[in-house]
Amino acid sequence: MAHANALLTPRGRLALARCVVVDGWPLRRAAERFRVSVPTAARWATRYRESGEAGMHDRPSRPHSSPRRTPQRRERRIIKLRVIRRWGPARIGYHLGLHPSTVHRVLSRYGLARLTWLDRPTGRVIRRYEHEHPGDLVHVDIKKLGRIPDGGGHRVVGRSQGQRNTGSSRPGYAYLHNAVDDHSRLAYSEILGDERKDTAAGFWLRANAFFTDCGITVTRVLTDNGSCYRSAAFAQALGEQITHKRTRPYTPRTNGKVERFNRTLLDEWAYARPYLSEAERVAAFPAWLHTYNHHRGHTSLGGRPPASRVTNLSGQYS
Hints:
Helices cover 42% and strands 10% of the residues. By secondary structure, the protein is of the alpha/beta class. The chain is elongated, with a radius of gyration of 31 Å. The relative contact order is 0.09.
């Protein structure tokens, strides 16, 4: 495509061609006048003789024929496997004896949505949203995490030694209660001993106080259908000013922002390095949470941390 300020725009090409075809200029003279090569002047003069003024526009670069293109019948099989079974390019390629890059080109040519954009059970495109202001919606969830025995678990010292470190009593589980603001992704999290109703209610009171200190007024809370969130104690903790919404049963993607926070938490803190005890991992948690809120770039925020969307967050630059 010609640049808007290029010398040979369609209008400039037309002037060059008319100088040669209509006015009878020699090709060399026209080329010097319009500061192009002789072959270029000849090309546009030929185009003008063949197609007139319409020939001065760029032609598509697509070839007239593609003899090595994937046959249409095989393309239909690729699309069928994607729509019905929701397989990726690699698996479709192995099934049909094609290279995954060939499958990917076919899927891209027909504009089929990426698998990451789809709800696997239904095949529907996931509708992504973001509330306009902090506090319009806060996602709340609990992540159950196995405690590390003293001396290290099997991830660090191997399965046989990890079992010996466990001894006769199992170390049990820790419960991470998490609250994530939908707009800013600002997170408040605590490591607690259970997921009972009074524990969940107490966590929300402290989480709400945290958001209030940051200048965020929470108006809605979204949770799953766990028994602790259906209790009167949790409803009392929310109060009358906060609307409680629940996800549809068996659809954790509805609470996706806190679910994504859970995964980030596991990747970047819980399993990020070898811990030799649960106390060592717990001691590293506050620093990680501070980094997440104040310094870690978030892809959905254009590489900025959640603190960039909260104007009253203390310790923002520490």
